[in-house]
């Protein structure tokens, strides 16, 4: 598996996310037929997976999480829908500040 940065192909999506949310970073990747959107804000990170042809596989989620966040699928809660998966978690900076 390989994540390919295709952020430049999604300039409108990225600009909308940055303008209308508290996101500080938005990156879009291709993982074969699956599109991965990584968003980072001051208090959390989000990884969104979408595939128009099939449901998202655990191996795809685990690979992308390891590459983008250093976390594994066992460390997070995955929200699933048809052809869609989402992982959202607090950043360590936010967790340390609340202690």
In this structure, how is the largest beta sheet organized?
A: 6 strands, antiparallel
Number of helices: 3
Indicate the CATH topology: Streptococcus thermophilus LMG 18311 protein like
Give me the Rg, rounded: 13 Å
Helical residues, percent: 25-40%
CATH superfamily: Streptococcus thermophilus LMG 18311 protein like
| Known CATH architecture | 3-Layer(aba) Sandwich
Q: Give the overall pLDDT as a whole number.
A: 88
- One letter per element, helices H and strands E, the order comes to EHEEEHEEH
| Structural class category | alpha+beta
Low-pLDDT stretches are 94-99
**In CATH's first tier, which class applies?**
Alpha Beta
Shape: globular
How many individual domains? 1
